[in-house]
Amino acid sequence: MHSTHLLLEEPIRMASILEPSKASFFPAMTKIVGTLGPKSRSIEVISGCLKAGMSVARFDFSWHDPAYHQETLENLKAAVKLTKKLCAVMLDTVGAEMQVVNKSEKAISLEADAIVVLTPDEGQEASSELLPINFDGLSKAVKKGDTIFIGQYLFTGSETTSVWLEVSEVKGDDVVCVIKNSATLAGSLFTLHGSQIRIGLPTLTDKDKEVISTWGVQNKIDFLSLSYTRHAEDVRQAREFLSKLGDLYQTQIFAKIENIEGLNHFDEILQEADGIILSRGNLGIDLPPEKVFLFQKAALYKCNMAGKPAVVTRVVDSMTDNLRPTRAEATDVANAVLDGSDAILLGAETLRGLYPVETISTVGKICAEAEKVFNQDMYFKKTVKYVGEPMTHLESIASSAVRAAIKVKASVIICFTSSGRAARLIAKYRPTMPVLSVVIPRLKTNQLKWSFSGAFEARQSLIVRGLFPMLADPRHPVKSTSASNESVLKVALDHGKAAGVIKSHDRVVVCQKVGDASVVKIIELED
Description:
Layout (H helix, E strand, L loop, with lengths): L13 H4 L13 E5 L7 H10 L1 E7 L5 H18 L4 E5 L5 E4 L6 E3 L4 E5 L10 E3 L5 H4 L5 E5 L10 E10 L2 E6 L3 E3 L3 E6 L11 H13 L4 E4 L5 H12 L8 E6 L2 H5 L1 H7 L2 E4 L1 H7 L5 H15 L3 E4 L13 H13 L3 E4 L1 H4 L4 H17 L3 H12 L5 H15 L4 E6 L3 H8 L6 E5 L2 E4 L4 E4 L1 H6 L6 E5 L10 H18 L7 E8 L2 E8 L3
Helix pairs in contact: 2-3, 2-13, 6-8, 8-10, 11-13, 15-16
């Protein structure tokens, strides 16, 4: 695996680029979040998605009702059992999303230079002249000359399915707009996005709260994707809300940065959130095109240094209808990996796209190729410098484990963890080899019954680059003795061998707690 590690800064033989890549058990270190929907909800398709490399399933509540998503989730559980591949669950809130309500679901044709009126009166029928919306404060938020985009499942840049409007006047609660391009809107819901317009809608709506406290609690969701996060306070309020809902106090909150307001408060949001999703669909509307790449690079760097997972969206839109991505998209996926992305999130491509499994497989292959040329040495030095001295105990152990693994050309790092924190810290230093995080379950009680923790922690590492979790047998005592550690280590090594990442004579770096001390050791495997 490591002999194939190239550096773009060094001369590469052009012919070597065409050499086929070796197949490996883990399709890529970069994780793939797939949105499940109409085209990807059967057991068969979900199994295909899991085998192709999806490790987090996203449920987008802008679409359909909880019963529909529950059915999909039951199919996901069946597919997980069938494929024996772990998968985490992410609930995506609707948040401060403005929508056009098209009850009749008839296609609406809009002609360039014509006039269309946006009205908060939802009882009206949607037509080419009138579009009812779910927000009554738009007339107060916009002014003449402002830009509004409308499209199915967010503005894609495809000028036939999305429309660009310019506000010409405000009449009472209605907003009169000039249509800037001809387009046909099809479906029952279209997202409406005002460019650089402040919308006074709550980040967690009452509908979101209801879905989280019923569907979310029932299914013990691993991640909450908080749409339209604009302030750190949004994350704090969501966390306080989750803390009162049974097991959901453990759910991680990923802040979705979708507009200028979120971008302006990025540093404070990053401090509060467990991870960040860069929603490039909406951001691409709020930012001038020439600034999009700069925001991506700066945001990913900040997430990397904070050791928090960063997820990039909207990478292969054209694969919604096509089997191959465009050249620009293929390059974009690779650049997201080289910029430091932990995971790639697929939305429409898997939700309603024609090729969900092929899309995941293609994105995984591009990620794997990009990982081979990731400059780990430079990244490692940069991270150590950023962390500064004195390092915390755990940080110094994590960075030492990665440095040792690279120096001895280890094939894998095995990390024993109960909270998942140690494994995430190791992953922060971006080792070139996979990190097997062995989650040791802990016994806990709520005064009524005893239960084991660990499943949440294991699934939550499925969004972190290079981390591959396995749950240890709860019968192993948490108070580690050398005997119990050896038996868990043997299980981990066997798992690695079965997966094909460890062979005889390989070196493995192990990071574990013995008593109160943390130990990094290098072991060489015999035959």
